[in-house]
């Protein structure tokens, strides 16, 4: 390391992100700060001076993928600085310290300091206590109540921006390690969120998606839930045309909250309600804090308040001890709810969680069979929902161009997050400026996931 520079200025940095939208947001902010410090951001396949892997730890498989990418980086350039950032660092710091492919470890609440941490590492020229720079690059995430302020100053997409509003989770579901990787709920100051969005509007932002680890808990650490208050404030910002919520718990959908949300014209009628199982006994073993009946009531409230809302969800199949009868109860429940889309996951044991130690772990064959049943169902339900808009005129937020089967299309989404395309030989293709809201008549399907205008 004796020949390395003292700062990151002028160095080539390759970055790779694993995991959720929160990780993506944080990676975007880190990239912006590195560019501002004089770094050149290059492709991960290029030879770089520094490799930063924003890791995930949600499953044992995610841990393995994180290690694989870290080792791949060191193989790409043995003389490079390989940096492990994020959730895998928080839950596996002992393994990180022993891994010879990793030069530097940065915790979740230190990502905003990535430039300063790298500069300290470079200035030390190898003379440091350990991969955490004596503990300065990682904190005890389980005992912090401080929200790490990170702000997007550039648009990562053409018209849509994900906005992180909180971090951490207090739920402790029996299958989930995230509270240990992200800590307790910490909410961002509302004024900071609004200021960030106003800045992005000046850069062309028309739609914001509110994201976090558990956004329904926004504000609880400050005394009371404030998510609906925040949405109302965002709606007052000139230039914002759409507000979309990330994943929320069904408990957020109370009669009062639903009434307030329905009064916000800019709010997209697209709600991702986290279910995980439609069987009460499985929900109890998962330590989920609602029943199937309560979830169904939340869906009923949304469908009464909004016109054909797009309701999506997550479902885990093959949870420890899930009997054929319990799965059938779940299958019948999700069929009755009739979601726009279901994200179906086969249960994967995560070391360190209660569920990983439960008896009656199912075989992968059993989990795969149950997964296929729900995947077939959601494919049919999704196509039926999309087809309900054929012949209608809807608002489309055009976002990007894409080649599909050798032909160019402009791609966008409706407020219900139905994907729409206009072909290059359509007058709409040439007339539409990326980012404009236009009214289009849906004529049919381009493919099972995309409607054509």
Task: Give an overview in words.
This protein is α/β, with parallel strands linked by helices and 453 residues long. The protein folds into three domains: 12-139, Methylthiotransferase, N-terminal domain (Rossmann fold), CATH 3.40.50.12160; 160-387, Alpha-Beta Horseshoe (pyruvate-formate lyase- activating enzyme); 393-452. The chain is built from 14 helices and 18 strands. The strands form four sheets. Strands 16-13-14-15-18-17 form a six-stranded mixed β-sheet, with no helix packed on it. The longest helix is centred in the C-terminal third of the chain and has 24 residues, at 364-387. It is globular and about 65 Å long. 44% of the residues are buried.
CATH architecture title of the largest domain: Alpha-Beta Horseshoe
Helix count from the secondary structure assignment? 14
Structural class: alpha/beta
Distance between the termini: 57 Å
What is the topological layout?
Elements: E1 12-17, H1 21-36, E2 40-42, E3 50-55, H2 60-76, E4 81-86, H3 87-91, H4 93-98, E5 104-106, H5 114-124, E6 160-167, H6 178-182, E7 186-187, H7 190-201, E8 207-212, H8 227-235, E9 242-245, H9 255-262, E10 270-272, H10 280-286, H11 292-305, E11 310-317, H12 324-337, E12 341-346, H13 364-387, E13 393-404, E14 407-413, E15 419-423, H14 427-431, E16 437-441, E17 444-447, E18 450-452
Parallel strand pairs: 1-2, 1-3, 3-4, 4-5, 6-8, 8-9, 10-11, 11-12, 15-18
Antiparallel strand pairs: 6-7, 13-14, 13-16, 14-15, 17-18
């Amino acid at each position: 390391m004796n020949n390395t520079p003292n700062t990151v200025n002028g160095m080539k940095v390759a970055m790779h992100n694993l995991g959720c939208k929160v990780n993506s947001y944080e990676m975007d902010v880190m990239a912006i700060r590195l560019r501002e410090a004089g770094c050149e951001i290059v492709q991960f396949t290029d030879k770089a001076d520094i490799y930063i892997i924003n890791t995930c730890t949600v499953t044992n498989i995610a841990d393995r993928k994180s290690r694989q990418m870290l080792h791949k980086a060191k193989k790409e350039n043995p003389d490079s600085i390989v940096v492990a950032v994020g959730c895998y660092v928080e839950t596996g710091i002992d393994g990180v310290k022993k891994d010879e492919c990793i030069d530097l470890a940065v915790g979740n609440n230190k990502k905003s300091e990535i430039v300063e941490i790298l500069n300290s590492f470079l200035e030390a020229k190898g003379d440091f206590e350990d991969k955490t720079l004596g503990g300065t690059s990682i904190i005890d995430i389980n005992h912090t109540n401080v929200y790490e302020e990170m702000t997007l100053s550039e648009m990562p997409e053409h018209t849509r921006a994900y906005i992180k509003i909180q971090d951490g989770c207090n739920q402790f579901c029996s299958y989930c390690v995230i509270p240990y990787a992200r800590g307790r709920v910490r909410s961002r100051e509302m004024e900071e969120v609004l200021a960030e969005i106003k800045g992005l509007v000046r850069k062309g932002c028309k739609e914001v998606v509110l994201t976090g680890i558990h956004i329904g808990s926004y504000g609880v650490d400050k005394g009371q839930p404030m998510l609906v208050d925040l949405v109302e404030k965002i709606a007052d910002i000139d230039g914002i045309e759409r507000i979309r919520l990330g994943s929320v718990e069904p408990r957020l959908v109370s009669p009062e909250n639903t009434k307030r949300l329905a009064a916000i014209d800019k709010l997209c009628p697209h709600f991702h309600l986290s279910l995980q199982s439609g069987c009460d006994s499985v929900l109890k073993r998962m330590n989920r804090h609602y029943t199937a009946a309560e979830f169904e009531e939340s869906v009923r409230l949304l469908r009464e308040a909004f016109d054909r809302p797009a309701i999506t969800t997550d479902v885990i199949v093959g949870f420890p001890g899930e009997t054929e009868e319990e799965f059938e109860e779940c299958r019948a429940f999700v069929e009755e709810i009739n979601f726009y889309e279901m994200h179906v996951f086969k249960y994967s044991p995560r070391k360190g969680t209660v569920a990983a130690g439960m008896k009656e772990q199912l075989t992968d064959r059993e989990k795969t069979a149950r997964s296929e049943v729900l995947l077939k169902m959601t494919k049919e339900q999704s196509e039926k929902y999309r087809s309900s808009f054929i012949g209608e005129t809807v608002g489309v937020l055009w976002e990007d161009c894409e080649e599909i089967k050798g032909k160019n299309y402009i791609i966008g989404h409706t407020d219900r997050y139905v994907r729409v395309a206009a072909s290059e030989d359509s007058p709409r293709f040439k007339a539409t400026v990326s980012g404009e809201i236009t009214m289009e008549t849906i004529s049919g399907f381009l493919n099972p996931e995309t409607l054509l205008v």
